[in-house]
Design a protein that fits this description.
With 949 residues, the chain is mainly beta. Helices cover 10% and strands 35% of the residues. The strands form 17 sheets. It has a 4-stranded antiparallel beta sheet. A 4-stranded antiparallel beta sheet has the order 2-3-4-5, with no helix packed on it.
Length: 949
Amino acid sequence: MRFLALLFSFLFIQVSFSQQNPTSEEVVDKALNQKVEMTKTSIVKNIPLQNIGPSVMSGRVVDLEVNPDNPTEFYVAYASGGLWHTTSNGISFEPILDNSRTQNIGEIAIDWKNQIIWVGTGENNSSRSSYAGIGILKSTDKGKSWENMGLKDSHHIGRIILNPNNSNEVVVGVTGHLYSKNQERGVYKTTDGGKSWNKTLFINDETGIIDIACSPTNFNIQYAAAWQKDRKAWNFTGNGPGSAIYKSTDGGTTWKLSSTAQSGFPTGDGVGRIGLAVFDDDTVYAVHDSQYRRVAKEKTKNASDELEKEDFKTMTKDALLALDNKKLNTYLKTNGFQEKYRAENVKNMVKDGAVKPADLAKYLENANAALFDTPIIGAEVYRSDDAGKTWKKRNEDYIDDLFYSYGYYFAQVRVDPSNKDRIYLAGVPLIMSNDGGNSYSSIGKENVHADHHALWINPNRPGHLINGNDGGVNITYDDGETWMKNNSPTVGQFYAINVDNEKPYNVYGGLQDNGVWKGAHNNEENNRWQQSGQNPWEMIMGGDGMQVQIDNRNSNIVYTGFQFGNYYRLDLENEKQKLIQPKHELGEAPYRFNWQTPILLSSHNQDILYLGGNKLHRSLNQGDDWEAISGDLTQGEKAGNVAYGTLTTISESSFKFGLLYTGSDDGLVQVSKNAGGSWENVSSSFPKNLWVSEVAASKHKKERVYATLNGYRFDDFTAYVYMSNDYGKTWKNISNNIPTSPVNALVEDPENENLLFVGTDNGLYVSFDQGGSWELFQNGMPNVAVHDLVIQPEAKHLLIGTHGRSIYKADISKLQKMNSGIMAEDLYVFGVDTIKHSKRWGNSWSSWGKPQTPGLDVTFYCSKPGTCSATVKTLDGIEVSATDIDAAKGLNILSYDVAFTKEGKRNFLKKNKMKLTEAKNGKTYLPKGKYTVEISGNGAKENIEFEIE
């Protein structure tokens, strides 16, 4: 018995270690505080990041709050792009959450009378990129400052409702953790403005509250929608017996189950996400994402009917051989079978026993098919006219093509405050009913994006709607007959970015539900395109945009696509595209492709393309033909409705063709040194089962490789960054002082082997010593998820693809020059480029335009903070300008306007008999010539020379 007890203990420990534990509230809080300190001490805190857009496609909106007395003022909450405010009916917006510790939002509520803003952080839609929050934030100064009011372990907030007569009384629906169980979920209430909270409704540790709605005339009458769900990387169960409707009649202090078995509302395992809308004290609507299966209908097939996948599952060998060839070919062509699989060949394979009839169904089936093709009931609408005692289903027919099989992403209903029978349902389309939910019509138009999450209805003007969707904000005044788009915020949710080598170079990127876009890096974000008709960013692919590879011989040839490995070769110049996804063989299990399937053009030959499924595929002819150059490089398929056991990242060494690395979503890093001839698992020392977010072969040393792991899908927010100098045989953890946050991206600088950049779910970091220590690198960028990093080598620019605030750009030329020698100096001044003189400096083309102004940025390094003096002189020693700088430890920038000071101008004219013309902006600029900049401080003095030609 003692032996068995010891064995059981050992097995328990083994199982425990194989499970990833969610990161605690205390660890997250410590990391956020650490990041605040790093903001103050970072040696790159003065190096700016510039947002280059785009804005035209926007990003996912999760909530809207509109001023009831002035509907031209409203707030828009973006899932991972922060909170934006407009007072101009959406013509322009200002971000007001940029100084907070997160940009991730699930819900907002505004006390308009007292100008108090409440933000429930952490998106509630439970998608692949629904980032966790840090609790409830509150602002009493219109967003200038924010205070965390608690519920820090909630992760995701469903709804906030405010007592209109008592600003201290707030009720919050907490959805809870996305990928793990937790106790801090349910309904919470405060009566002291958030200083303390009482949990007033708790169902269990995997059931949270997704919605709360109250009577518009009685705050005491409230309904709460509980939602039981279980999300894993390989499976999403968005339903369970914990999902139900509860009612409170005392302002959320106590609750009673409304959707009882006798109420008429569905109960049990198939109950999914529920959305609520209250019209008055008696009438309440509920939209339900029912996961119960539809009743199978008897189907009588005629001989002339087209073949379907299900037919082959029970078909005999003889029946298949007797099929009409034309009919069989129609099935094969329609369903994308490879060209070699046509009727005669398939019949011969069946006759020979190489394949079975059921293989013609199996060929099309994978986890993705299970997710999208499941015959569930889906959206259904219920109404109670007796204050929640009983519920009656309103739709007689199925509401098809609204939720499909992913109603967990929607389930929102709104009722017109002036018409009890007019309701709106948010789903893939936005639909409206004028008969209380029996029949519907779509009110989306050509400029309205799909996938809707927020809707405001003007109580004083029927037909005036403000809508939030995956593509931003739309406004209508005629109930959806016509819409205007209001997408000026730069809130694009990029999955991946890349650059070409054109002049100016272009940036490419794939976005969540917004396709793939291309634009020059120096485009200006403004409204000029509305006049010219030509937006500087061009959409080159639809769907959920994914990774992009550009042929460096001809940038018109681009490889990109959308989710689950649907990749294309684009010929942009000739407007052609060809699907190039590898196909499995008949009789083989279908390949598994990740949502964001990795692709890579070989740096050794731009005709060679790699694409990762569960195997690594290689094409030698630009994707026309493929061969698998590996077996399964993952731990294998896992039962579930999401593709899993897939490759997530690919890298090939620039030193040797065929020195390949792959990373998978289940924690494996593999290496091949012979172009796929053999593979070795080099990840045995890593934490188990974590998503490999990046594997990167070094550009400086053949044996060196980097890997990053991501525990987001276990609610494990630890930063995992590793480096190996022996092809992955041994690894060194180099995450060191990166604050706790999942790591998405790593890039090694092409010029300086010690210079590394890492992007996490909460920001950007740089290391000057190969990961020995890290500096926060976010001047100009809020705390947003960084999904991808790429360096344009000629321009010496770092491009940062964020999942919520579009793309940022940083000049890293000075960072590339940093080394231990420079950092040991008390003072070091970097050289500057020559400036081209212009007579237009300080002048504009018209009296109405802004003057053109030059600038010279002088970057210098200080070993400690203090005051530095800067003096600009001619080569013969005439001082033309001087200033003092409050320098920080690290890199500093002296921004010089290339103009004389008044005293400098007098000094110059004493020794130079020449005419100096004052510009229209009142400044006198330096003439052509050579000058010096002298910076002194820290007991040191340094000079550099620059020229105006």
